[in-house]
Amino acid sequence: MVDPRLLPWIVLFAPFLASVLICLFSMKSPRLASGLAVAGILVSLAGSAALFLHHSAHGGLPAERSFPWIEIAGLSVDFGFLIDRLSLLMLLVVTGVGSCIFFYSVGYMKGDSSFPRYFASLSFFAFSMLGIVLANNFVMLFVFWELVAVSSYLLIGFWFEKPSAADAGNKAFIVNRVADFGFVLGIFYVWTLSGADGGARSFGFTHLESILPEFLAKGILAPTALVIASLLVFCGVIGKSAQFPLYIWLPDAMEGPTPVSALIHAATMVAAGVYLMSRCFFLVSGVPQALGWIAATGALTALLAAILAVAQNDIKKILAYSTISQLGYMVLALGLGSSTVAMYHLTTHAFFKALLFLGAGAVIHRLGTQDIWEMGALLKRMPVTAVTFLVGTLALCGLPPFSGFFSKDEILTLAHEHNRTLYVTALFTAFLTAFYMGRASWIAVLGPERKIKHAHGPSHGHGDRPRGEAPLVMLAPLVLLACLAAAGGFIGIPEFILGGHGHAAPLNLPVAVTSTVAALLGIAAATALFGKKGLSADPLARAPGKAYAFIVNKYYLDDLFSAIAGFFQNALAKILFWFDWNILIQKGVNGAAGATSRAASLMRRAQTGRVQDYATTFGFGFVVLAYFMLSKG
Amino acid sequence: MPHPGPVSLLLLSPALGGAILLFIPKDRVEWLKKTALAAVSVSLALAVFLFCRYDRTAGGYQFIDKIDWVPSLGIAYHVGVDGINLVLLLMTAVLAFAGVWVSCGVKERLKEYLVFYLFLIVGCFGVLSALNIFFIYFFYETAVVPVFPLIGVWGSGNKEYATMKLTLYLTLGAVLALVALLALYFTTGLNTFDLTAIEAAVRENPLPLSFQRWAFPLILVGFGVILTLWPFHTWSPMGYAAAPTSVSMLHAGVLKKLGAYAIIRLGIGLMPQGAALWMPLVSWIAVINILYCGFVAYAQKDLKFILGYSSCSHMGYILLGLSCLTPVALNGTVFFMFAHGLMAALGFALVGFIYDQTHTRLLEDWGGFGKKIPFVATIFVMTAMASSGVPGFANFIGELMILLGAWDTRRWQAVGAVAGLVVTAGYMLKTVRASMQGPLSPRGASLLDAKGWQRLPYLLLIALLILVGFLPALLLPTISKGTAPILERIHSAQAQVPSPGGPRHVA
Fold this sequence. Notes:
The complex is a heterodimer of chains A (633) and B (507). With 633 residues, chain A is mostly helical. Chain A has 26 helices and 2 strands. Chain A has a two-stranded antiparallel ribbon. In chain A, a hairpin with a 2-residue loop joins β1 and β2. In chain A, α17 (383-397) packs parallel to α20 (472-487). The termini of chain A are far apart. Chain B has helices spanning 6-22, 29-53, 83-103, 110-129, 133-144, 147-154, 159-188, 195-204, 209-224, 235-242, 245-268, 272-298, 303-324, 327-358, 369-372, 374-387, 394-409, 411-435, 456-470, 476-496; strands at 62-70, 75-81. With 507 residues, chain B is mostly helical. In chain B, strands 1-2 form a two-stranded antiparallel ribbon. Chain B has one domain. In chain B, β1 (62-70) and β2 form a beta hairpin. Residues 498-507 of chain B have low confidence and may be disordered. Chain B is built from 20 helices and 2 strands. The N and C termini of chain B lie far apart (62 Å). Chains A and B meet through β1, α5, α6, α24 and α26 of A and α1, β1, α4, α7 and α12 of B.
């Protein structure tokens, strides 16, 4: 048995090592590259499992280890690991779902000309994500938070010769940077607050958790200060976890390879914001105003994204908006005061959303299209994929006994207890969820086979695509995830997070029945509209008025942000450059130069323009100087 | 004659190399290259030696060589290292090595180019290692002047105008500083240019406030010109665009830092009260530097102009760090100087590598190079990331420390500087997008990737950035040892002047 203190190091650095080794030695050898990457994530998975078993057997949670990283007068930043139930759960989710997706990628990316680069980036992502999970302080978390953004940028733009992919990567990075503007200030502010009693300041989560509530109770800190600090930190969540209004980057991120969408833009990275808030829940738990804002953001995001999902025809875009919507649910749970419930939904969502993306990927891989109107008859053509996809759909719709039912039900129960508006919003979102997933299932999976008008999808051409099921290396992860998505509600996730301190909320029967009915209604409505035979166009598109156009155009939010970005990047930049060129250079500098030109004409005599002369003068001068220096000694 | 110490040897090696070059026939290209490389390799080895052997527990100036020159005026050849210049010398030695390596690609008049280049390096080493104000100034001019022919002869584009402007700007700045330095000489009454003696004296008896009040801004602006203090920054993008690759590398990497170094040593270090008076203003100019130059970088079409304005924008972080006068910010500033030096040089080296093949630096002519030259493109993206302050690279550590320091003392300026991180990421990604991504531009159809030994300078620079970015403790103890005496003088100066803001309050 490895020393348990070494385990976090192994978990964190195994994928990093894999990434470095691929970059150094295996850029020409796809087999070795995928082998290294898979080995790296499996070592991480084993390490996480060992950590889990060790702490289950011996207790000792939370375990924290810190090493000084930046250490000077007035500032001390550690590199440290915090192992508690929260990080253990997240470790298992990231490495578990990650391993499935790494294996799946071996099949999905086969034949791509940049296969090794893909696995190097994916391993680097795993490293960064695990760093977020293990971090014991704000700065270290932020370091990996940024590295995750970089790996996301690299993977969204993996096919960077395609302009839309390259643009999507840029958009993701910049939008997240804008959000991190608030996050950084939040970290700085929390740091300042931690020294409110005149003591040494700290970034450490455990230290902050112990002192901040105390400061609040003693009146050293005004609640307003904590509200500001926590909302600034929450800005980071709005970016990373794609909340309104910054969710605009996530649908574009679907330009990346589908396994990347599954791992990064559904199961793990976008959930990092939820993890962050759970990690520093002590910031918000005592300040209801902050919680109110967070809950409202979450509910609004859940609803708005679900509406958008209804009008999408690209299967990955449907799933992307669905992800945003589900992240809204998680943030809503945070805002309702329960990080446990948020983490529960994060976990089940990781299972079923990864499953749905991988299923969609298998279909895209075979058919070469992402348009649901070009799919159909999948039960016959790809039965395993189709069945697992339907399992994921039912879990996402929140139907019992699938995993999504339990976690979503806890969120709805919380909302029911706290706030009627939020409850109704969440319930309506549940209806919409069932509706758009029902729509996608009817058209893409259950409906008749449709013609492919023009193949797009992954740009790594396969030529004649083989028919039938995906290879085993892709199917096995699907089946595994389908099992988890189906049974995830029975493996005691909330009990594990709570760790014997309190119980998971018992099933609230009226809420459970209401939400099930809402989901069933959604499916029924979808069946009525899209279950018809011979449907070739979206009946929703014939909806009267401008409502449909408003939804298809994504509430014009993208256009608004493009206009803002355009103002800064084009208008303001050009104005300042004009000022620089015409005022500072032409008027200021050249004007002054004109005045000194007479002086310059004197100097010109010394300038013969011959390099040899300059060199000689220089060399001579230096020799004289050196002579003086040495002779005086 | 005393045995010359390692610092003197470090300085002598490129000088000697340059002198030997004069006697090598110009058609013996290999000899020329090997001599120049040997000279800077010796310097690099000595810099590493100094860095390893510097006694960090003792601190202070070490490896001192002192030869009286004009004793009656207190002028002596006097060199030595402390934590600040040691780190910067190491950075300079690395860049000198990488720069000469890149210079070996010069096709015309290689001999003369290398001679000037080596003298430029001597000047840089000299400013950083000299402990006598006269020699600091002398070496400063030695560093500024060879740039004139280097750009004027080997440059590209509007090179005559650019080099004239650059040289005039920096020389005029130096004249301003000279006025202050001469006044300093007479004000101390010590009758010496010996920096260590003056430092010891001002620790006991600070310079008169009336003197500091007007002398500090002269030093600040005089050396600030080369640090591209807004609005005196316009020489820089133009100069870099016209300069040959390896000159841009050294200029953006090292020469700008010489200005910051001089401000730390001669400005803040000797006139902390004057600094306290003027720094609030400087902190706002720093924000202008960061945001204004960042936005102007957006509007550029030439890659070297983008990098030029980018480096002006980054100098804002150095100015902001200098303006705080706190340990966290000052240490962070020196750290950032190290990091930015490597990063800026790397950026210019990469653009130069591609320009040599495409003969165009216009962004619209580039595109899709990522598939064509994966190695160079990878380093290019990494450099853009380092420039954007992504963790894992040394720049992040420096920026983080500067921003945290500024957050304590200059909060709203810090907010502006954090916003600058968004701007930087914006134009850097735009540049990557337009140059490396998308469909391949026809201008890049025959591009060849860096192979074998060609890769060495790029790998060296990026590896150092990553190494120090992962392990900041490699530099921080050294740097903080060097800044300690300066911070002590700042502290005692602040104790004498009641602070106007009253006690710092939280929230």
